[in-house]
Design brief:
heterodimer, A: mainly alpha, 2 domains, B: mainly alpha, 3 helices, 70% helix
Chain lengths: 200, 108
């Protein structure tokens, strides 16, 4: 809980500082997120490379691990389909498209803008950037209350990059390879499905 | 994306090479926990300075957020059903997870 609040505080400090221009201009450099992520993943790599346990999971479970991204995707699609009936601006088909991004917001919102238009691009950004931020902020709580696979599922496609550090931190290093695999599968399948649903 | 994965790979190789230097590894772990706050901070900044789409959380953005929340809930539900049905059988553990016992929990 404490860690979730600390992460939320860091996020809000950045958000409000950026909004009210309280920070030095260099903080707004768009590549800073990328650099922070690279440094983080280097550190994640050190932890995962030095530990045999994450790889033991892969050896023990093999291809059955692919069921995890499948369950993540099916659960997401079913839930967004149900939710879309409550949302005035989003049709079932659009919700399925936006949901299949599974957190991959850059590509999903670009595809949504190309194939539908700016309104759906905003929805896609809210759904997928929101998923990434929530998966990061809630990772400690999700791991505690729903088990170590929950942050992997919540992270969706981002489990291989942005949310990987949080998964390693709160689910354990054992879940690093699982998260990488699940995120990679969803990063490939997700954008394809976004395109497919919007071309229907 | 490529750059990020390159750094992950470089980290894994270094981690493997220095796997016996436990103090170094522990330092990397500690640093990672702190850097996570830095990442959230810069994600916040990037959203805060963006005056075009996502920064202005209007009705469309909120409906997107509703999809994010439900998507997370649905995916967790399904992976839990999966691990209860599938992964439990082979671990024989009452706690249906990939890794046996509670070692998955972060040691304090």
């Amino acid at each position: 809980m404490k860690r979730s609040l600390l992460m939320l505080a860091a996020f809000l400090a950045g958000l409000l500082g950026g909004r009210w221009a309280l920070l030095p201009a260099c903080f707004a450099h768009p590549r800073l997120v990328l650099y922070a992520l690279c440094a983080l993943l280097f550190l994640v790599g050190i932890g995962v490379g030095s530990d045999p346990r994450p790889w033991a999971v892969l050896r023990a479970r093999g291809l059955s691990l692919l069921l995890i991204p499948l369950a993540t995707l099916l659960g997401t699609l079913l839930a967004v389909a149900l939710t879309s009936s409550l949302l005035p601006a989003v049709t079932l088909r659009e919700a399925l498209a936006v949901g299949s991004g599974c957190g991959y917001y850059t590509l999903t919102s670009v595809i949504a803008r190309e194939l539908s238009g700016p309104p759906l691009a905003v929805v896609a950004l809210g759904a997928n950037f929101g998923r990434e931020i929530l998966a990061l902020l809630l990772a400690p709580l999700l791991a505690r209350f729903f088990g170590p696979l929950a942050p992997v599922a919540a992270g969706g496609a981002t489990a291989m990059d942005t949310t990987l550090p949080a998964i390693v931190e709160f689910s354990g290093k054992e879940y690093a390879v699982v998260a990488l695999l699940s995120g990679a599968v969803l990063s490939v399948v997700g954008p394809l499905l976004v395109t497919a649903f919007l071309s229907l | 994306m490529f750059l990020v994965l390159l750094f992950l790979g470089l980290g894994m190789v270094s981690g493997f090479l220095f796997r016996r230097r436990t103090r170094l590894i522990r330092l990397a772990d500690r640093l990672m926990a702190w850097m996570l706050y830095g990442l959230l901070f810069f994600l916040g900044v990037s959203l805060g300075v963006d005056r075009s789409g996502a920064g202005q959380l209007g009705s469309l953005g909120l409906q997107g957020l509703a999809l994010a929340v439900s998507g997370i809930a649905g995916s967790i539900l399904f992976t839990r059903l999966l691990s209860a049905q599938f992964f439990r059988a082979s671990t024989g553990s009452a706690h249906p997870e990939l890794v046996e016992g509670r070692e998955a929990r972060r040691e304090a």
